[in-house]
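Human:
Class, as today's exercise, you are to examine the entry below, and be ready to discuss the fold:
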Amino acid sequence: MTVNTFIAEFFYCIIGVIFILVGLKTLRDSNLKTRITTALFWFILAFTFIVGPHIPYWITGLCVIAIAVLTAFNRVHQSASDVPSAEATRTNANKMGYKVFIPALSLALVAVLAATFLPFGANNAIGISAAVALIVAFIVTKAPAKSAVTDGSRLMDNVGTVGILPQLLAALGALFTAAGVGTVIAKGVSAIIPDGARLIAVAVYCIGMALFTIIMGNGFAAFSVITVGIGIPFLIMQGANPVVVGALGLTAGYCGTLLTPMAANFNIMPAALLETKDKYVIIKAQAPVAIAMLVIHIILMYILAF
């Protein structure tokens, strides 16, 4: 095991411990009717994160199926949490002021510096920056150490099952690529796009990126599939600049990110954290901008790529 792998597994184990804490928190809520199945969801998820590399793949697959079944049958719910009153929250906010942003900014800054100057890889840089940001948060807020456990588990419980969508969607993107979905799309699109119809090809590519991102919830996963199926054969092979096609194609996919609940970390998690009455309110607010930006992407790619 390399040093990078060891560090990555260490951070995965920490994530698993957080899931265990959420499960224990759920078990203590005697008023929650689904506390057993909800706790089971978090314990199974913790199991895959902690011992996943040391067990056969088929066991991990069964674990994924199990948590999917629990979620599909609505057996996973948020447990009760001890949250500060509105008055206490307002008082602490006034006391902290803009200093509350220091941990978040340090998270981003340390992540960039660690990824650039440390030989541990970009993924481990995120874990390192999270540890540093936690220390900074303690220094800034002077909160007790137990807050990392209580508030961390409460936050994860509040986010709920959508918190694991990024991992599942990334795996789904790799599966689609390996299964040759891009080739199938290319065959279907060839019957739609006439020879030499650059504008139609650009529109199909950009809209396809947005639509597939809406399905996948992940612009990177959609990029590999749609670029292989449409971007390369119908644009780049027809003389389009690959740099322009790649750059604008990926950001065209991000227009789809703004429109889908599958992009849980962008659209559903913030709604859960803000405790909005409508969990799709963020998507509804972003929709006009997303559609306008998609049209702009089509125009720019048509003008700049050829």
Remarks:
- The mean pLDDT is 86.
